[in-house]
Design goal:
Number of domains of chain B: 1
Structural class of chain B: mainly alpha
Radius of gyration of chain A: 19 Å
Strand content of chain A: under 5%
Number of helices of chain A: 12
EC number (chain A): 7.2.1.1
Number of strands of chain A: 0
Number of helices of chain B: 8
Number of strands of chain B: 2
Distance between the termini of chain A: 16 Å
Shape of chain B: globular
Protein name (chain A): Na(+)-translocating NADH-quinone reductase subunit E
GO molecular function (chain A): oxidoreductase activity, acting on NAD(P)H, quinone or similar compound as acceptor
Order of helices and strands of chain A: HHHHHHHHHHHH
Largest sheet of chain A: none
Largest sheet of chain B: 2 strands, antiparallel
Distance between the termini of chain B: 39 Å
Membrane topology (chain A): Multi-pass membrane protein
Oligomer: heterodimer
Order of helices and strands of chain B: HHHHHHHEEH
Shape of chain A: globular
Helix content of chain A: over 70%
GO biological process, one term (chain A): sodium ion transport
Chain lengths: ~240, ~220
């Protein structure tokens, strides 16, 4: 159940592009045609499915406070979490290179369709953002981390696919000249983000105990959405713990 | 600005308007939008980017002849990551509340495309001093947009600027609230950042028609 919940939550409610603005650069740059958008989206899913669980392992067994205790008692006090940026980005950059080499060797067709997008991905904010959110939301287990990676990737895929389709059609519309190209894309993305906010009510149905928090996120408050969703994540984690107990 | 030659001065003034990293080069949008609900956060983010970009461009430019081209992306990422860790630790030490607000977006300066873009386009081909100036210029261009967006979102969204109630008190109905003005809470939500930037682009391009795209 928590898998399904996390899956839909990361695709629709905490959508990478519309809720947290991650991966906007490639989202805007590569969304002129549907075919290229699909290529980039697929590559993002692929890379996130690998890097998020990998960074979860790094975080759990090396970086967190007390994570090194498997090495022995004297290492238990170390807290290497200040290194997480550098470790995460190094993992992502090397994994992207590695994936590129492997795909090129074993699946040349896939390489031809993903190929040019893979190097772009190393500096895609969505990938690093996925790992950092995984860390700050305290995703509880490896399979949940994998789930989070895949579903956030799908969220990005969905976003870039829809905007590419809209941009292909909007070429035939009569837009005020100064808004053409970038300007209108920004505004459409904003409108789509408003649409995606309506998914915020999705998790409130049924007898979920967190109904109150979900409705409070709709009311504009001074807290930005990211903070609220972080609270939710920690509450979710607490709920899980209770269920396990 | 007597210290700088005309050519160097152009490196600073160009990114402020006609070659703005956000509205023209479409770089660095990721971290630009999420944190602009408050003016203070925008300013701190701008300073962080200014620091990382100036020093990063300088470092890369100093190393440009010894970096093997094949692994340059990793080298660049490491340089940026190191600088960002410094920023993050400084923020955590001296402005803990603010670092909570900025949350993961400080870390995301690493993948801010402006930084990588300027490394690739400028620092790898130019001397250290010019690269430093270019980095500062582009960071200022980024800061201008961030501060404009942050200004309007905070003013219209919560009626404050940097936390000061400039429009009066919404509860006691003083200032403009006495005339029935209400805060537009919608401005604080994520989508309005996008629309605000869209409008900035609109205004900029209608003033300077040479920037208009064909389609």
């Amino acid at each position: 159940m928590e898998h399904i919940e996390l899956f839909f939550k990361s695709i629709f409610i905490d959508n990478m592009v519309f809720a947290t603005f991650l991966g906007m650069c490639s989202y805007l740059a590569v969304s002129k045609k549907v075919s290229t958008a699909v290529g980039l989206g697929a590559a993002v899913i692929f890379v996130m499915a690998i890097t998020v669980p990998l960074n979860w392992l790094l975080d759990q067994y090396i970086l967190q406070e007390g994570a090194l205790s498997w090495l022995g008692e004297e290492y238990a006090a170390y807290d290497l979490s200040f290194l997480s940026f550098i470790m995460f980005i190094a993992t992502i950059a090397t994994m992207v290179q590695l994936v590129e080499i492997i795909v090129e060797k074993f699946a040349p067709e896939l390489y031809n369709s993903l190929g040019i997008f893979l190097p772009l991905i190393a500096v895609n904010c969505a990938i690093l953002g996925g790992s950092l959110f995984m860390q700050s939301r305290e995703i509880a287990s490896l399979d949940l981390a994998f789930n989070y990676g895949v579903s956030s990737g799908i969220g990005f895929f969905l976003a870039i696919l829809t905007i590419a389709a809209i941009r292909e059609k909007i070429r035939y519309s009569n837009i005020p000249a100064p808004l053409r190209g970038l300007g209108i894309t920004f505004i459409i993305t904003g409108l789509m983000a408003i649409g995606f906010m309506s998914f915020g009510g999705m998790l409130t149905g049924g007898d979920e105990p967190e109904t109150k928090e979900e409705t409070s996120r709709v009311i504009p408050s001074k807290n930005n959405t990211i903070e609220v969703s972080k609270e939710e994540a920690s509450k979710l984690a607490n709920n899980e713990k209770e269920i396990i107990e | 600005m007597g210290l700088l030659s005309k050519k160097d001065l152009k490196l600073i003034t160009d990114p402020l308007a006609d070659n703005n990293p956000i509205t023209i080069q479409v770089l660095g949008i990721c971290s630009a939008l999420a944190i602009t609900a408050e003016l203070k956060a925008s300013i701190v983010m701008s300073i962080a980017v200014l620091f990382v970009m100036g020093l990063g461009n300088l470092t890369i430019s100093l190393m440009r002849n010894i970096i093997p081209p094949k692994i340059r992306i990793i080298v660049q990422l490491i340089v940026v990551a190191t600088l960002v860790i410094i920023v993050d630790l400084v923020l955590k030490a001296f402005a803990y509340e603010l670092s909570k607000t900025l949350s993961v977006f400080v870390g995301l300066i690493i993948t801010n495309c402006i930084i990588m873009g300027r490394f690739e386009a400028f620092a790898l081909a130019n001397g250290p001093i010019r690269s430093f100036i270019d980095g500062v210029g582009n960071a200022l261009g980024y800061a201008v947009i961030l501060i404009i967006v942050g200004f309007f979102r905070e003013l219209l969204g919560s009626g404050t600027l940097l936390g000061f109630k400039v429009l009066g008190d919404p509860i006691e109905k003083t200032g403009v609230y006495a005339f029935g003005y209400e805060n537009n809470g919608f401005m604080l939500l994520a989508p309005m950042a996008l629309i605000t930037v869209g409008i900035i682009i609109w205004v900029q391009r209608s003033r300077n028609t040479s920037l208009i795209e064909d389609n």
